[in-house]
Amino acid sequence: MNFELINCHRQSRRVRYRPASLAVVLFWSVAISIAATAADENSATEPIRFVAWNLKNYLAMERRVSGEIVSDAPKPEDEIERVIATLAEAKPDILGVCELGDAGYLEDLRERLSKNGVDLPHTELIISADGWNRNLALLSRFPIVSRDSRNDLTYLIGQTRFPVQRGFLDVTVAVNESYRLRCLGLHLKSKREIPEADQSEMRRNEAHLIRQHIDTILDKEPGTNLLVYGDFNDTPNETPVKAIRGRFGSDTYLGDLRPTDPFGFRWTHYWSYADTYSRFDYLLFSDGLKSEIDKNSAAILHPEDWEKASDHRALTVKLIPKDR
């Protein structure tokens, strides 16, 4: 038997099939790499949920407890439990709230949410200038990379200078390596009458100062992904809301998501004393954010017994964190 011929034949077979084997290996290597890259991109651009809510006095204040007036009583536990249950169901990635107490109450809210599966470790708290301790706060799953909040702005009515009572909360959140979301939280002067000035005029002045801040943001960086939210204490047709939104048709005009509840209604606040339903809470967006909003996801949360948590209903929307 010619062993040299057999060995030569075997070697030629090995040589003939080696390129094909190498091509298969390269093919699967590239395919796996592409799949891994696609998975990373999909993970980075998964929708995130934003929730805005006035928590109705999640703080210490004068309350009637067991028939007696207590000067420094916290929000009742059953109301807090209802707040936490609503947020645990909504699962926000970023949460902007009004009417929260001091840093202790912020930590209380954060810990309760964490125990219920909503981990929001990054926070911002703006102490109100009016002394009522009804503060603005934001809690985020993602890091806060810029803080531009203000609680030192003032305005004149006649000869009297007033502060923007709750200031405004302004932070930029790094949702992923390439996407930044700027969140501007507001809580304008309430409709409660005070002897010092007209409450509606106070809101108008606050709104104009806030609009100046928005113009500064968008003039400096027109493509900013800006989400403006909160309790404006006025309906869409009133001057403060129009002022905050800006001039219709301009590059800095803010769109209005106009979310609805499961029944198609848009009211966000119920005043039991007057038995009135009003739209006081808003989600506004800049032109830069427009393409990243899942408009079909914008909604007013309406869980069972919603009124036990707050006299406001929470707003929510999903965003796709990829600049378009």
List keywords for this structure.
324 residues; alpha+beta; 2 domains; 6-stranded mixed β-sheet; 5 helices; disordered N terminus
Please tell me about this protein's structure.
This protein is an alpha+beta fold. It folds into 2 domains: 1-44; 47-319, Endonuclease/exonuclease/phosphatase (Deoxyribonuclease I, Chain A), CATH 3.60.10.10. 30% of the residues lie in helices and 30% in strands. The protein contains 5 helices and 18 strands. It has a 6-stranded mixed β-sheet, covered by helices on one side. A 6-stranded mixed β-sheet has the order 7-10-11-12-16-13, with no helix packed on it. Strand 10 (169-174) and strand 11 form a beta hairpin. Helix 4 (199-220) runs parallel beside helix 5. The longest helix is centred in the N-terminal third of the chain and has 42 residues, at 3-44. It is globular. Mean pLDDT is 89; it is low at 1-20 and 30-42.
Could you spell the SSE succession in H and E letters?
A: HEEEHEHEEEEEEEHEHEEEEEE
**How much of the sequence is in beta strands?**
25-35%
| Terminal residue distance | 72 Å
Shape: globular
Mean pLDDT: 89
CATH-level-2 architecture of the largest domain: 4-Layer Sandwich
CATH-assigned fold name of the largest domain: Deoxyribonuclease I, Chain A
Radius of gyration: 27 Å
Largest beta sheet: strand ordering: 5-6-4-1-18-17
What composes the largest sheet?
6 strands, mixed
The domain count comes to 2
How many beta-strand runs? 18
What is the helix tally? 5
Q: Can you tell me the residue ranges where pLDDT is under 50 for at least 5 consecutive residues?
A: 1-20, 30-42
